[in-house]
Amino acid sequence: MNDCPALDDFLRTDPRDVGCAQAMEMLHVYAELVAAGAPAEQQYPGIAAHLRACGPCGEDFAGLLAAVRGEAD
Amino acid sequence: MAMMPVNRMVDETPVTATGLDPESAWWLRVLAETGPPREAALARLHELLVRVARAEAARRGPRVRIAGPELDDLACQAAADALMAVTGKLGQFRGESRFTTWACKFAIFEVSAKIGRHFWRHPAVLLDAEDWDRLPDRFGFEPAREAEWRDLLAALRRAVDDELTARQREVFVAIVLNGVPLDALVLELGSNRNAIYKVLFDARRKLRSVLVANGYLRDDSSRNS
To answer: Model ipTM?
Structure first.
């Protein structure tokens, strides 16, 4: 048995993961919830799971969250 | 883009829209009009989208090695395309967020897409190559402990060759071995982000299952629950 957490984490999939299309569809809603300190992850566990696993969607979320928080100003 | 989640059983999209906040209602009303008020609103919206696209391009620029006028041009094009997307999809705004948040999302998506296109202007990899040597570094395998991970890597390679479909293998090799960004691969394969992610998702699940079955990784499915 090997102890390779990075590879294990990469290969591990979450059945709640909603995929890119649904995450992108709801990204504005999720970003506002997070920015407001609301329990977004509890409300949308499938989107949270996806954003943890998908690099491109995670990047988009980080950018939108920055915009919502006014960091774009 | 196809609207198919990775897990078809999961759908977190609200069915009903909530009430609009006053500012969002103003945006919708004025953008539906004609004449100077609409033109002024479009100019204001464009200004917002340019600001957001520039900030996003600046945030990502260093990692994708784009800077200066090229980066600013990318941001301005992204803002212009986002404005087109927003005005073309006004009827799809359901009031679940502020209108400006919904609009800014398109600026972020356009920056993403344009950075993906930029990758192929100066590609550092070939799609048909297989750079297995990058895996130890990518997954933090220490050279001093090669005796421990050599067998795992060999098993992973066998599983990639023997267990994946041709499409899964193509996507795994491009993204994991060759470091092609997912958005760039989407363009190269004429696909969409959701479809390529799904292919990689299935490949990851299959590979982990094989490695667990053969004793190379722990069967610890409770970690995700």
So the answer is: 0.92
